[in-house]
Amino acid sequence: MHMNDATIPRKPPLIELRLWRPFLAVAEELHFGRVAQRLNMTQPPLTQAIAQLEVLLGIRLFDRTKRSVQLTAAGAALLPEARDLLARAQALPAYARASADGEAGRLRLAFVSTVGFDLLPRWVRAFREQYPKVQLELIEATGDVQLQAFERGEIDAGFMLHSPGFAPPGLASRRISQDPLVVAVPEQSELAGQTALALKDLLEQPLVIFPRRILPSLYDAIFAMYHAAGNLPRVAQEAIQMQTIVNLVSAGLGVAWVPESVRQFQRPGVVYRSVPAASPGKVRVPSVPGCETSLVWAAQSANPALARFMAFIDSPGTFVP
What we know:
Elements: H1 17-29, H2 32-38, H3 43-57, E1 62-64, E2 69-71, H4 73-100, E3 104-111, H5 119-130, E4 133-140, H6 143-152, E5 157-162, E6 172-186, E7 206-209, H7 216-228, E8 234-238, H8 242-250, E9 256-259, E10 270-273, E11 290-297, H9 304-314
Parallel strand pairs: 3-4, 3-5, 7-8
Antiparallel strand pairs: 1-2, 5-11, 6-9, 6-10, 6-11
Helix pairs in contact: 1-2, 1-3, 1-4
């Protein structure tokens, strides 16, 4: 039963917690006298508090007679919500302290696909088990997209792939792993029959590679290797994700240089081969570049959850190659 329209506020009211506590008590006891004793107050202020809440909500919460008090349908519907509201309010101070300590809160973590093959899933599982109150948001993004997200304040940290020693400007970084590059070769290619390939065997092959804008340091290192050998890469196709690059190799479009961790992506039609350095005494040939994965973050970040994640990475027993 709706109250008179004249008593309904025109704007949604801000209802204080002090009004929900008497409502919850009366809803549980269904007796104003017992509730007044329970709350150590007289009955008139209790009745006034319930009346004020009904006016603010614009609905009747209780049907009252001289002999009984009963919840209305609307009051019964509000009861579990009120319980939840007061329980969360009571838990708020502890949550605030946990957030300040980095044991709760939110951490927005970007990552490149190569980290998602093995390392990231294990870390995420272990971190969630250790800090279940931290809301961990995972965002798959290439390095160029991550840099834009840092500028807009949309992420707290990110796993980036790059050539050894490269550091994204304006960001703090910590090296997580270092991989050699291996070559993905179509299974139907003659090259697939060799357990190890020499660089000279690959220079004339069509190349599937990522666009320079998403990983410039590694793109330039690969091109520099070809140039040092007197060749210009024959780029057959560009693709952004490593999985897509490997899929294109399986279709026979060319070969691709990928981090060794990509070997875990077993795609039919593709084999992975190492390219060893030249033997001593032979004519010097360019070295195959390696790559690194780093965790990067804004140096001025004050997110306690990020500090907890960094401490987690450095803790004994956490796998860091």
